[in-house]
Every structure is written in C-alpha cells, then in structure tokens.
Amino acid sequence: MTKISTLYEPDQDLLNSLTCKVVEWCITRFCLQEKVERVTIDISGLKIEDWWGDCIEDDENEACYIININPRQSLRDFVATIVHEMVHVKQWATGQCQGEGEREANRLQYELTDIMWKENVV
Ligand SMILES: [Zn+2]
C-alpha cells in the first residue's frame, strides 16, 4: 500500500508571479497604466482572518493602492478575489462606478477570471 501525503507549503514564488500577472492583466484591461502608480499586494494572509480580500488607498498617495488577499482559497477563487479588488481600484482611480461598486466587482470577478483562463494568462 502506497502512502501518499502532502505538506502544505504554498510555493510563494509561483503565487507571487501569478499575482503579478493577474494585476498586470487587470491594469491593462481597465486602462489604468496612467492612473495607478503602484499596487502593493499582500498575499501572506497575515492581515486577514475570515474574509477573502480587501483594498485600501494609500494614505500618502491616492494613486497607490494596498490590497490584501487571503491565500487560503482555491486558485480560481484566489484569482477572482484579486480581480474583485482590482475592480475597486478601477472604480477609485477612474471615479466611475457602474451602479453599486460591490455589485460590479462581484459580477466581474469570475467573468474576467474565466477570460484569463481562456487566454492562458494564469
Ligand atoms: Zn468588494
């Protein structure tokens, strides 16, 4: 009988590069290159307990954003959460919001994630 076990140790390098690719794709998709100076993403999960992600504007510079993403979720949900927060970045950066911001973010998160999958971005 073969014993099979895994050790849960997320490959941080892989997750980092995946995260950067997703954010880069969103920046291009939402045409934010000129509007957003910097996006810092914390995927350590240290600042997050029982929610999936959040996003705040940097106090010192409005064009800079800080996003926290919980790494303890499936890869698809992880990507979708980044997309969700990037929709909020777009809403802030452009001052445009189609209807209620949360609804737009929820609507787009899996839609865009699936497009990324089809385009082999992730
Ligand atoms: Zn939201």
In the CATH hierarchy, the third-tier topology is known as Zincin-like
Q: How many angstroms does the end-to-end distance come to?
A: 36 Å
Mean pLDDT: 88
Strand arrangement in the largest pleated sheet: 1-3-2
Number of strands: 3
Order of helices and strands: HEEEHH
Task: Please summarize the sheet with the most strands.
Answer: 3 strands, mixed
Count of separate structural domains? 1
Contiguous uncertain segments of 5+ residues: none
Quick structural gist:
The chain is α+β, with helices and mostly antiparallel strands. It has three helices and three strands, in the order αβββαα.
Helices and strands, with pairings:
Elements: H1 12-29, E1 38-42, E2 53-57, E3 64-69, H2 75-94, H3 101-118
Parallel strand pairs: 1-3
Antiparallel strand pairs: 2-3
Helix pairs in contact: 1-2, 2-3
Bound molecules: zinc ion.
